[in-house]
Write a structure and sequence with these properties.
This protein is mainly α. The protein has one domain. Helices cover about 80% and strands about 0% of the residues. Helix 1 crosses helix 2, helix 2 runs antiparallel to helix 3 and helix 2 runs parallel beside helix 4. The radius of gyration is 17 Å and the shape is globular. The relative contact order is 0.18.
Length: about 210
């Protein structure tokens, strides 16, 4: 089940980037930042491999990733501002959003305030959901966008760099790859499996 979901996500991510280029990176990162757990841990390192192959530029990938994050986060922000937590709790299960994720994001935002939006962009999992409590709290939009962009740019550049370095050493790493012709390393597969497994287990506990 988990491997099947991971396979679908990976094929979708790789196909989108191959078909749309930089715009695909922005689109996928926007989806992730709209509280839909599409792992940037796959999106950006694969883009980094394309940097190593000479297809992409790391600075442009990071820029497009950050722009995508801002756009998706604005959607999540207004979902929080207009729909509130009740709407997400009702429909979030269909996109692997758990109560645990929302609780964690709420606690972070309540404890650390606006700066949480920046810090959370550098953390796995919580970065996907932090825009929602910011919207509930009606955080100032200009500050929200600035913190989201800066934090997301750093995150995007770092994960793209990891993928680039893996791509540069592809000959020594390729024995760890299987099933997909596209380049997803054992590190990315393990991380994505954990990501999806965690969400499914949390949702199962709730329901």
């Amino acid at each position: 089940m988990i491997e099947h979901i991971l396979g679908i996500l990976s094929v979708f991510i790789i196909g989108t980037i191959n078909a749309m280029g930089y715009a695909g990176v922005a689109l996928l990162m926007a989806i992730e930042s709209a509280c839909i757990p599409l792992p940037s841990e796959v999106i950006l390192p694969f883009s980094g491999y394309l940097v190593a192959a000479g297809t992409f530029n790391i600075w442009i990938v990071a820029l497009m990733g950050a722009i995508g994050c801002v756009l998706g986060s604005i959607v999540a922000y207004y979902a929080g501002a207009w729909g509130g937590r009740v709407w997400i709790e009702k429909y979030g299960k269909y996109i692997l959003i758990s109560h645990h994720d929302l609780d964690m994001a709420d606690r972070w935002f309540s404890k650390y305030g606006d700066m949480t939006v920046f810090a959370a962009r550098l953390l796995p999992v919580i970065r996907t959901f932090i825009a929602f409590p910011a919207g509930v709290a009606r955080m100032r939009m200009s500050t929200f966008i600035a913190y989201t962009f800066i934090g997301s740019y750093i995150w995007s550049w770092a994960l793209t760099w990891v993928g680039m370095k893996m791509g540069e050493n592809w000959q020594s790493l390729k024995i760890y790859f299987h099933k997909f012709d596209a380049i997803i390393g054992v590190f990315l597969i393990a991380g994505a499996v954990w990501y999806v497994r965690r969400h499914l287990q949390l949702l199962k506990k709730v329901h």
